[in-house]
Amino acid sequence: MAVFLQMIAIWSALLAYLWHCRAYMRRRNRMNWTDLADQLALISTIDHDALPGSARLAKNGEESGLLDWREAWRHFNEARLILEMSDYAERNGTYGTALMDPVLLASLRSSAMQLRVAMIVVLVKCLLLP
Questions:
Q1: How far apart are alpha carbons 130 and 124 in whole angstroms?
Q2: pLDDT tens across 17-32, in order?
């Protein structure tokens, strides 16, 4: 009986996660360029000092000479928005113009993913340093 309840809980969690992903993709696909640019501007106005644990993490970043965790988190989110902007440009742009070059979009995506991975490494280092 306990195994059956665990399976129900696992499947329920999986379905809830898939529902959340579906809602996020719908919301993302309905965004226009102005909404994406507004989100990018909003990231720079967030007060990261008010977030929990900011004093300990900032102290770790200052002592080790690493990038501050708040800056790393901001860059991580900016890279997500850059990926979304490149997806938007690919979906709604016409190829053949200088701005919608497929090679340029692929390069932009690659750079954004490299930035996201680098910022994950920085965030992990900020959390794991004593």
A1: 12
A2: 999 999 988 888 888 8
Mean pLDDT, range 86-110, rounded to an integer: 76
Q: What angle do CA 22, 26, 30 make, to 5 degrees?
A: 170
Residue type, 17: Y
- Cα–Cα distance, 83 to 60 (Å, whole number): 30
The burial class, CB within 10 Å (0-12 / 13-18 / 19+), for 100 is middle
Cα 29 to its chain centre, rounded Å, is: 16
- 97 three-class SS: strand
Mean pLDDT across the chain: 78
pLDDT of amino acid 53: 47
Domain ranges of the chain: 1-30, 32-128
Nearest to 90, CA basis, from 81, 78, 107, 102: 102
Question: At residue 64, what is the residue type?
Answer: S
Q: Are the C-beta atoms of residues 99 and 83 closer than 8 Å to each other?
A: no
CA dihedral 46, 48, 49, 54 (to 10 degrees): 170
